[in-house]
Give the backbone structure.
Amino acid sequence: MRRYLVNATYCIYLSDIGQLYFDKSIYTIQDVVDEVKLERNIEINPSLVKSKKVNLQLKSNLLSNTDINLLQTAKAMDYILVTDDKGLIAIAYHNGVHPLDSPHFIHRLLIENKWTKEKAINTLNQLKSFYNRKYIIEKVIKDIQNWG
Protein backbone atom coordinates (compact mmCIF):
# COMPACT_ATOMS: atom_id res chain seq x y z
CA MET A 1 0.00 0.00 0.00
CA ARG A 2 1.35 3.40 -0.99
CA ARG A 3 1.50 6.04 1.68
CA TYR A 4 0.83 9.71 1.21
CA LEU A 5 2.00 12.82 3.02
CA VAL A 6 -0.41 15.72 2.48
CA ASN A 7 0.32 19.41 2.80
CA ALA A 8 -1.92 22.29 3.82
CA THR A 9 -3.26 23.02 0.32
CA TYR A 10 -4.87 19.59 0.09
CA CYS A 11 -6.32 19.97 3.59
CA ILE A 12 -7.61 23.48 2.99
CA TYR A 13 -9.05 22.86 -0.48
CA LEU A 14 -10.91 19.74 0.55
CA SER A 15 -12.03 21.23 3.88
CA ASP A 16 -13.46 24.24 2.05
CA ILE A 17 -15.81 21.94 0.13
CA GLY A 18 -16.49 19.52 2.98
CA GLN A 19 -14.59 16.62 1.39
CA LEU A 20 -11.43 16.37 3.50
CA TYR A 21 -10.44 12.71 3.50
CA PHE A 22 -7.93 10.75 5.54
CA ASP A 23 -7.43 7.03 5.95
CA LYS A 24 -4.69 4.73 7.22
CA SER A 25 -2.48 5.52 4.19
CA ILE A 26 -2.71 9.34 4.42
CA TYR A 27 -0.53 11.25 6.87
CA THR A 28 0.80 14.69 7.55
CA ILE A 29 3.10 16.44 10.01
CA GLN A 30 2.17 18.66 12.94
CA ASP A 31 3.35 21.78 11.05
CA VAL A 32 0.56 21.22 8.51
CA VAL A 33 -2.09 20.82 11.21
CA ASP A 34 -0.87 24.11 12.72
CA GLU A 35 -0.88 25.85 9.32
CA VAL A 36 -4.46 24.77 8.58
CA LYS A 37 -5.53 25.98 12.03
CA LEU A 38 -3.87 29.35 11.37
CA GLU A 39 -5.26 29.70 7.82
CA ARG A 40 -8.82 28.46 8.32
CA ASN A 41 -9.27 28.26 12.10
CA ILE A 42 -10.28 24.62 11.85
CA GLU A 43 -8.96 21.54 13.58
CA ILE A 44 -8.04 18.57 11.43
CA ASN A 45 -7.27 15.15 12.82
CA PRO A 46 -5.08 13.22 10.39
CA SER A 47 -2.63 10.53 11.35
CA LEU A 48 0.65 12.26 12.09
CA VAL A 49 4.20 11.23 11.38
CA LYS A 50 7.22 12.74 13.07
CA SER A 51 9.18 15.07 10.82
CA LYS A 52 12.40 13.54 9.51
CA LYS A 53 15.61 15.24 8.47
CA VAL A 54 17.52 14.26 5.32
CA ASN A 55 19.78 16.15 2.96
CA LEU A 56 17.97 17.87 0.12
CA GLN A 57 19.16 19.72 -2.93
CA LEU A 58 17.42 23.07 -2.64
CA LYS A 59 18.09 25.58 -5.40
CA SER A 60 15.63 28.07 -4.00
CA ASN A 61 14.90 29.83 -0.75
CA LEU A 62 11.21 30.02 -1.65
CA LEU A 63 10.13 27.03 0.46
CA SER A 64 8.70 27.55 3.91
CA ASN A 65 10.00 25.57 6.87
CA THR A 66 6.82 23.50 6.71
CA ASP A 67 7.46 22.69 3.03
CA ILE A 68 11.05 21.69 3.77
CA ASN A 69 9.91 19.50 6.67
CA LEU A 70 7.29 17.83 4.44
CA LEU A 71 9.78 17.22 1.66
CA GLN A 72 12.41 15.80 3.99
CA THR A 73 9.84 13.55 5.67
CA ALA A 74 8.40 12.32 2.37
CA LYS A 75 11.89 11.52 1.11
CA ALA A 76 13.02 9.80 4.32
CA MET A 77 9.86 7.68 4.55
CA ASP A 78 9.32 7.14 0.79
CA TYR A 79 5.84 8.70 0.88
CA ILE A 80 4.11 10.34 -2.07
CA LEU A 81 3.90 14.07 -1.39
CA VAL A 82 0.46 15.61 -2.05
CA THR A 83 0.81 19.33 -2.74
CA ASP A 84 -0.49 21.97 -5.12
CA ASP A 85 2.58 24.18 -4.76
CA LYS A 86 4.31 24.19 -8.16
CA GLY A 87 7.66 25.15 -6.65
CA LEU A 88 7.49 22.35 -4.10
CA ILE A 89 6.49 19.88 -6.84
CA ALA A 90 9.54 20.83 -8.92
CA ILE A 91 11.91 20.51 -5.97
CA ALA A 92 10.31 17.20 -4.97
CA TYR A 93 11.03 15.76 -8.44
CA HIS A 94 14.61 17.07 -8.24
CA ASN A 95 15.06 15.25 -4.90
CA GLY A 96 13.57 11.92 -5.95
CA VAL A 97 10.24 12.44 -4.16
CA HIS A 98 7.08 11.57 -6.09
CA PRO A 99 4.57 14.46 -5.89
CA LEU A 100 0.87 14.50 -6.74
CA ASP A 101 -1.39 17.53 -6.89
CA SER A 102 -4.82 17.36 -5.24
CA PRO A 103 -6.79 16.59 -8.45
CA HIS A 104 -4.49 13.68 -9.34
CA PHE A 105 -4.60 12.48 -5.73
CA ILE A 106 -8.41 12.43 -5.93
CA HIS A 107 -8.04 10.25 -9.03
CA ARG A 108 -5.75 7.94 -7.01
CA LEU A 109 -8.45 7.65 -4.34
CA LEU A 110 -10.75 6.35 -7.08
CA ILE A 111 -8.12 4.00 -8.53
CA GLU A 112 -7.47 2.58 -5.05
CA ASN A 113 -11.24 2.01 -4.55
CA LYS A 114 -11.43 4.50 -1.70
CA TRP A 115 -13.83 6.83 -3.53
CA THR A 116 -16.50 6.26 -6.14
CA LYS A 117 -16.28 7.73 -9.62
CA GLU A 118 -19.25 9.96 -8.82
CA LYS A 119 -17.66 11.30 -5.63
CA ALA A 120 -14.34 11.98 -7.37
CA ILE A 121 -15.96 13.86 -10.26
CA ASN A 122 -18.29 15.82 -7.96
CA THR A 123 -15.35 16.82 -5.74
CA LEU A 124 -13.28 17.90 -8.73
CA ASN A 125 -16.18 19.96 -10.09
CA GLN A 126 -16.51 21.69 -6.72
CA LEU A 127 -12.78 22.48 -6.73
CA LYS A 128 -13.06 24.18 -10.13
CA SER A 129 -14.60 27.28 -8.58
CA PHE A 130 -11.36 28.22 -6.81
CA TYR A 131 -8.53 25.91 -7.91
CA ASN A 132 -5.93 28.03 -9.69
CA ARG A 133 -5.12 25.52 -12.47
CA LYS A 134 -8.54 24.51 -13.80
CA TYR A 135 -6.97 22.81 -16.84
CA ILE A 136 -5.55 20.15 -14.47
CA ILE A 137 -9.01 19.47 -13.08
CA GLU A 138 -10.45 19.21 -16.60
CA LYS A 139 -7.72 16.75 -17.59
CA VAL A 140 -8.27 14.59 -14.50
CA ILE A 141 -12.06 14.56 -15.02
CA LYS A 142 -11.50 13.48 -18.63
CA ASP A 143 -9.07 10.76 -17.48
CA ILE A 144 -11.61 9.51 -14.92
CA GLN A 145 -14.41 9.44 -17.49
CA ASN A 146 -12.19 7.43 -19.85
CA TRP A 147 -10.92 5.14 -17.07
CA GLY A 148 -12.22 1.65 -16.47
The chain has a mean pLDDT of 94. The first helix runs from residue 8 to 16.
